[in-house]
């Protein structure tokens, strides 16, 4: 899941007994730090603390949430307010960090029993539950406050709701029902909708935000079922009710992966047929999905860990590729759509700024435009209206970094979990 914990098991070298632990706090309920191994490189206390916080809040996973939020913002089309987009991404990322932190607090017992998660900050004793609660609360309150103040109440409400949905309903359901995967997929589908809401002043009345949300929703099934298949033994140790845990033959797991891969294949066809994307999205989207379907069918015929890993790693580059196509080929970036949104922005809070004695307030698309936001006029550089290329460069760099990180954790004992 995109909000689901990115369970990094990369071993953190702890300082020697003469060094300070995280916040210099003694936790009698958690294991004592182990001495450095011979030849190991000593890590400074500050760097150790920052690494522990990064692992607790799932920094790399939260960065993926930021990417999907940005994609949702750009999918709404131009003009683009860079500052609002950045506030939306940062605020949503903070909400994701809070949700991951609370999830770790509630699942500390299960994490202690699983090879992939026992080195997490709380079960390993790097961070106490009290410290984690403070960090999660700070991230959650700060994130929702930032969204409320700098975007709009709708985005803030979605952010707060997703924290509760992930750390509450999803976390609880993992030990109760296989349906937890579907709940988690809803959590992952909300960030791009938040991005759309930030771009449109909170307007969720159109179909488009749910289109990009559905892409995230569908994507998570082949991604997570593949991940949970080659980690099914570990999930069983944590007593989680995942489909692969209760599916020893893998028949149902393979069926779900094939089913949702097929839905993803139909996605670009349906968006183009409905008039939301250009026909080029069908060509590129189909080419990507054919490969995913091939891997899904291969896993169905030979349900090995190796084949499930291929699906998992495919899903890591699949998502940015599809998001790029959806944004780049969206008809919201047509000249007419941009002009309509400019008119909408010019009438925010019921105010219309008349320019040049009643002349066209839209102006030439190559010139600057004055936009009223909360009654305050600010200049918008029109170069920033056409951002898909620039943003996708940033998106690509984040995902390349993430995929490289995952490949360093390929063993079952040290695998990345969403």
Task: Walk me through what this model shows.
- The protein is an all-alpha fold and 418 residues long.
- It has a single domain, classed as Orthogonal Bundle (Farnesyl Diphosphate Synthase), CATH 1.10.600.
- Helix content is 60%, strand content 2%.
- A hairpin with a 2-residue loop joins strand 1 and strand 2.
- Helix 8 packs antiparallel against helix 12 (305-328).
Give keywords.
418 residues; mainly alpha; Farnesyl Diphosphate Synthase; 60% helix; disordered N terminus
Helix and strand sequence: HHHHHHHHHHHHHEEH
Our count of domains comes out at: 1
State the assembly state of the protein chains: single chain
Q: Describe the biggest sheet?
A: 2 strands, antiparallel
- For the biggest β-sheet, the strand order reads 1-2
Mean pLDDT: 80
Note poorly predicted spans.
1-31, 351-418
- Distance from N terminus to C terminus (CA atoms, Å) equals 5 Å
Principal-axes geometry comes out as globular
Count of helix runs: 14
Q: Rounded to an integer, what's the Rg over CA atoms?
A: 23 Å
State the secondary-structure class: mainly alpha
